[in-house]
Every structure is written in structure tokens, then in C-alpha cells.
Please model this.
Amino acid sequence: MDLQLVKKALRGDDDLFVQLIMEKKEKLIRIAYKYCLDDAMVEDVLSETIYQCYKHRKQCKDVQYFDTWLIRILINNCIKEIKSQGKHVELVVDVEDGKSNDVSLRSIVYSLDEPERSILIFHFFENATLNEIAQYLQMPLSTVKSKYYKVLNELKIELEEVYNG
Model:
């Protein structure tokens, strides 16, 4: 959707707003699942995100950053929902069929705290650049880079311990 239509949608055209959200629906669902891992929680988070975007749509200052604004609201809602339900994901080591120490990247990433988890989710599962991640998380690029490289080093050490230990 071009920027003029996005601007109209954010300034009060309800039909265009619905169309805009529908265009982003798959991406929003994909991101929400990467945080929540639960169908009911994803539905709640998406509903709340769409409601908040609709209610506060005139607060989106720059239409070219609509995606960033929308995803930031989604991330905040995911984190809030996870905290309210007291859910966290533990590091899981599967031992089955003779495969010992089979640790998935996904389980390790979900065992991290914020914002490190978000940085890795966007980088590995959404193929976002570090610059895009900085925009989504509203953090300086240098902070995102330092957290990214720090957590990669920690993960490397953790995986070495799991596979060699």
C-alpha cells in the first residue's frame, strides 16, 4: 500500500485501515507465534494490537514507519501477555531415539530474557537486519549490535557445554 493510502487509513478511513491491517496480518501472526507459542495467547495479543493501533492510529507520526510502529505495539503486547500469565520457556534438551543433547536454536532463544530474545527472534526467524531490529525495538543500533554479539557468544559457550559436556 502506498504511503498516501496509509496516511488516509491512519487519518480516519476505516476501510483502508482494515485493508492495511489485512496486508500485515501474516507477518503479525508469525511474529506473535514466535513470542507466545500458544494459539489462544496469539489471538489475544493480535486482537489487542489491532485495537490499540486503531484507537491510537492518529498518533503514528510518520507513515513511512507504520510497520515499525505496528510491530512495536505487537512486541509490547506479547511481552505484557507473557508476563501477565507468568509464562516462560525453559531450555529443553531432548533425548530420544539415541540422539542425546539435541538442542534446538528455538528452545535456546526462548530461554533468553528481553531484549536479547527479541533481537535473536527478529534476526534468525524474521531475517531482519540489525538496523531494522534497532527500529523495531527503539534502541540505538550500537546497543542492538553489542547485545547481539554478546548473546551469540553466550549461546556458543552454552551449546559447547551441552554438546561436549
Remarks:
- The longest strand covers residues 99-102.
